[in-house]
Amino acid sequence: MDEIIIHGGGVLRGEVAVSGAKNAALPVLFASLLTAQPCHIDNVPQVVDCQTTELLLSRLGVGVESDAGQVRLEAARISSFEAPYDLVKTMRASFLALGPLLARFGEARVATPGGCAIGSRPVDLHLEGFEKMGATIHHTHGYVEARAPRPVGGGPRLRGVDMTLRFPSVGATENLMMAATLARGTTVLRNAAREPEIVDLACALRSMGADIEGEGSDVIVIRGGTSLGGMTHRVLPDRIEAGTLLIAAAATCGGNVFVRDARRDDLGVVLDVLAAAGVELSCEPGGIRARRSGNLVPIDVATAPFPGFPTDLQAQLMALLCFADGESTISETIFENRFMHVQELVRLGADIRVDGGRAFVRGPARLEGAEVMATDLRASVCLIVAGLAAENTTRLQRVYHLDRGYERIEAKLAGLGALIERRSGSLTARAAAASAEYGAGARQAALAAPERDLATPPCFGDDVTSLEAGGPAVDRVAAAVGGPARLQSRRLHVVTGGAPTGARPTRRRTRAQP
After folding, report:
1. What is the mean pLDDT of the segment spanning 327-355?
2. In sequence order, what are the beta bridge partners of 222?
């Protein structure tokens, strides 16, 4: 079994490119089921979850051709309407086959995903939506069997409906959006998810001829049609990978990394939180640069649906806050069991206490390398971030979690100067190839590129929280956001013209929420 070996203490410097977003690619791949015409999708990350999706589509009868991030799909001859358990159990996103199959063919049989390591993620919102669109749902032998209504004299077809989701679920929003494109009439999704991946899916569906508006807001309107055409679509860059790389750059003092294709609008409050913690950020043509030249500042953060702080970056941020001067608080509001990485960070020497949905991280900690085990996708990369700044050597086991969502992350970090390698009995060529692709030339070119002065108005975030006045941490935050600052009740308020973040000031900390 593969393992990742990290020799800590190195400083990351140079340039690295972000891969396509796995969470955007998956629904776009499933959208190919909506049409008999060829679909060409570019910038698909070469990760296990995307490979699993391609395998599932081929099981359904879709013609699949995949080469170096370019995927061609043709669902002209579907041979099965069933997504089997052996694939669904390995990737919950397989449930996204339900909407397109039900909309185009009037029936679908998909295994229920069950829970996962980070908590239960029920599909009841998906099914409630399909039932409102007229579908008949049956649960049998661990499968969901769905059939569209069949009007007199016509074929099976879902009907448009005005519905409000109880929670802005990304998966439910995607499944219902795809189904609504072929429904009879207009569908209105209220309290819809607003994530950039939703916007990307809407762009792909629109290129197929779908009539969609409102994506990116909490109300999406889809006017159904009788058929859709093919598409040519490029998947957006992965904002979670971008955030991970920005955090990794700040793990050690002296880090200076330009993350190409990192996008301000997709990261939003993530950049505000990192700036409040003392990370120096600047937008440059084509990406964002992260630097760390001083100590980190403790902060309070709560995860929330977009545009709030993403739960998929919570573990990585926790690793970073282990090195802050004081106690930080992280509140997890999305999943009930997403602190499983805490015990592994503690093995490295972190001082973390968990109380329900909150974790209290006291720093600065002196981490020492040890053998640790990944418990889920984001926990695996969190331990890599911690290992980069730890003393001695960290050995990460169960890296198959990492391969589900990060494309050659160890090679990218090696290209930035990290002493990291993948071993499978013997050293594989995967990490060794990093020097050729992300070598010294790229690093030197990135470091020689002009940088924006942090005192100028930045191109990240629209909001910042308030914090108690005094000290260099305040100066860094005020300079980073580039907005006017004023003292009020002994607290410094930085005004940037965006909507308030709902920050709660604490002693030398900030709280970032949507």
Report:
1. 92
2. 187, 212
- Output the CA torsion 308→499→287→420 (10° steps): -30
Q: What sign does the CA torsion over 55, 65, 401, 332 have? A: negative
Alpha carbons 381 and 387: distance in angstroms, whole number: 10
| Alpha-carbon span 425 to 446, nearest angstrom | 35
374-401 pLDDT, tens digit per residue, is: 888 778 899 999 999 999 999 999 998 8
Element (H, E) at 234: strand 231-234
pLDDT band at 114 (very low <50, low <70, confident <90, very high): low
Q: What residues are paired with 396 via a beta bridge?
A: 4, 372
Please give the model's pTM, rounded to 2 decimal places.
Answer: 0.82
3-state secondary structure of 497: coil
Q: Which residues are the active-site residues?
A: 116
pLDDT digits 0-9 by tens, 96-105 = 999 999 999 9
Q: Average of pLDDT values for 222-246?
A: 98
Handedness of CA 465, 467, 469, 475 (dihedral sign): negative
Which two tokens mark 224? 């159904």
Tokens of 339: 């602190």
CA 87 to chain centre: 21
Give the DSSP letter of residue 253: T
Buried/exposed code over 200-226 (b: 16+ C-beta within 10 A; e: otherwise)? bbbbbbbbbbbebebbbebebbbebee
Please state which of the ranges 121-135, 320-334, 436-450, 466-480 shows the lowest mean pLDDT. Answer: 466-480
Give the end-to-end CA distance of the chain in Å, rounded to a whole number.
Answer: 41
Sheet holding 63-67, edge to edge: 63-67, 70-74, 39-42, 231-234
H-helix segments, 348-426: 377-389, 400-403, 409-415
Mean pLDDT in the chain? Answer: 84
Residue 154, CA distances (Å) to 101, 108, 150, 184, 420 in order:
18, 19, 6, 12, 60
For the stretch 493-513, pLDDT in tens is 333 333 333 333 333 344 444
Q: How far is the C-alpha of 79 from the C-alpha of 59, rounded, in Å? A: 8
Residue type, 74: E
Distance CA(40)–CA(233), nearest Å, equals 6
Is 76 in a helix, a strand, or coil? Answer: coil
Q: Round to whole Å and give the CA distance between 307 and 191.
A: 13
Least Cα distance to 267 among 248, 245, 291, 252 occurs for 245
Specify the 3-state DSSP secondary structure of 474.
helix
Residue 500 to residue 493: CA distance in whole angstroms: 11
378: tokens are: 């984001």
Three-state SS for 412? helix
